[in-house]
Amino acid sequence: MRKRIGILTGGGDVAPLNAVIQSAFEQGTESGVEVVGIVGGWQGLLDRETVDLGRIGLDPKIGGTVLRSSRVNLANVQDARRKITESLSELQLDGLIVIGGEDTLSNAFHLRDIPQVLISKTIDNDVGINEPGRLVNYFTLGYPTAAEKIASFVSLKEGLRTTAYSHERIIVVESMGMHAGWLAISSAMGHPDFIIIPEFPLEYENLKAKVAKRFGSQRHVIIVVSEGSKWSNGRYISADEDERDDFGHPKFKGAAEALAKRLKADLVPFFNTRNVNSVNPSYLYRSGRPNPLDLDAAETLGRDAVTLMSKKLSEPVFLTLKESGRGFESEEFSLKELRDIEGFHRFVDNRYYDPAELRVTTDGTNYLAKLSADLGSPVYGFSQNHKERR
Ligand code: F6P
Questions:
Q1: Is residue 72 part of a domain?
Q2: Residues facing residue 119 across a β-bridge
Q3: pLDDT bucket at 384, cuts 50 / 70 / 90
Q4: How many distinct structural domains can be found in the chain?
């Protein structure tokens, strides 16, 4: 009998979602597997809301997800396993392709006997394994596009560096990234002066001294800070610790703004400049069309997910992206190795980032080089030692 599988997207949108959905649908059509769209992530499956993918004119180059998204933690839904099993049987689905970040995919751990292919997507790039000599999942879908964006937002060629040097500004730019600094470190391709990430609590006096020195020589400074970064006392630079979402994550309220305020108070009297600003591109990181690498990855993952589902699959399997001689290709990774999603949640470590210098290491630069092009020269204008300022 013809296999019928559901496909759903959950969590924050990323640029290549429609591209994966379309590739999965095409692969299904070519190989005799019916791929059915589930509208609204896990909530859509609970509500049994589906759509015929052949009728909605999917455009892989448009970002976001036509299947919509939700953030549902099945651990908080009563009788979730039974309800999901009933939905699958009612909709006559043999299994699922689940496209999501750490939260959406964590639901698979409550449904270990349901055939699922899990595809990680998140601009946070934090789903996978990063251990010495073991990088499982080179990148998550959506990360290359967002990485290119943040780098361009700060760069001299396309971004904030031009207004920074023109007005002698110190600009603090906020990156998304609740727990992991992958997006923030990718800004290194656009050459900000300093980067602050959640994995390494900020030694503020070190930052302040570095900013003062750099401003003294360069007359402008660009700092990138992840939203989930912390002070050295362990408190978030800016988050409301009392307000939490369905997965228990705190609500962030602008780390760049908080840091800019503190720097302004400490440095402005010294430099006599009013120009300490903050910029938060926020959802712009997730918006817009996918870049070529994300499009290729989406095509590979969408097609291979359906091929994998058409085999006999009795459990959830992660479909990851590994580097190969020809670029990137998909690789299966069994869930059996892992107790929960925490085992598949990865962070930036000091192989990639130097917390004392607040910048990316050579290994970090090499990691990023495989994802995107460098965005031109770091600075412009007066040379480092321009003497006639005051
Ligand atoms: O999980 C990806 C992410 O982009 C985080 O970095 C960010 O904190 C979060 O989504 C915010 O998403 P939303 O406002 O849609 O809940």
A1: yes
A2: 99, 319
A3: very low
A4: 2
Which strand (E) or helix (H) includes residue 175?
strand 170-175
Average pLDDT, the chain: 92
pLDDT tens for each residue of 329-376: 999 998 888 888 888 999 999 999 999 999 999 999 999 999 976 666
220 in a structural domain: yes
Q: What is the pLDDT of residues 223-235, one digit of tens each?
A: 999 999 999 999 9
For residues 140 and 191, the answer to whether their CB atoms sit within 8 Å is: no
Cβ of 14 closer than 6 Å to ligand 1, yes or no, is no
Residue 388, C-beta contacts closer than 8 angstroms, at least 6 positions apart: none
Residues 340 and 353 in one domain: no
Question: Hey, what are 364's tokens?
Answer: 């970090």
Q: State whether 246 and 319 are in the same domain.
A: no
311 CA → ligand 1 middle, Å: 34
**311 and 361 share a domain?**
no
Structural domain for 36, as ranges = 4-131+289-344
Instruction: State whether 37 and 61 are in the same domain.
Output: yes
Residue nearest to ligand 1 atom 1, measured at CA: 12
Average pLDDT over residues 194-206: 98
Query: What atom in ligand 1 is closest to the CA of residue 122?
Result: 2
SS3 state of residue 130: strand
Please report which residue ranges of the chain form alpha helices under DSSP H.
17-31, 41-47, 80-90, 102-106, 143-154, 161-167, 182-186, 204-218, 255-271, 292-310, 362-369
Q: How far is the CA of 33 from the centre of ligand 1 (A)?
A: 33
CA–CA distance, 28 with 309 (Å, rounded to integer): 10
Give yes or no: residues 248 and 370 share one domain: yes
Residue 327 lies in a domain: yes
DSSP letter, residue 141: B
Specify if 140 maps to a domain.
no
CATH code where residue 188 lies? 3.40.50.460
Q: Are residues 267 and 175 in the same domain?
A: yes
> Considering the chain, what percentage of its residues have pLDDT values greater than 70?
94
Per-residue pLDDT tens digits for 40-71: 999 999 999 999 999 998 999 999 999 999 99
Let me know whether 369 and 227 are in one domain.
yes
Tell me: do 275 and 313 sit in the same domain. Answer: no
Nearest CA to ligand 1 atom 13: 12
Indicate the SS3 state at residue 31: helix
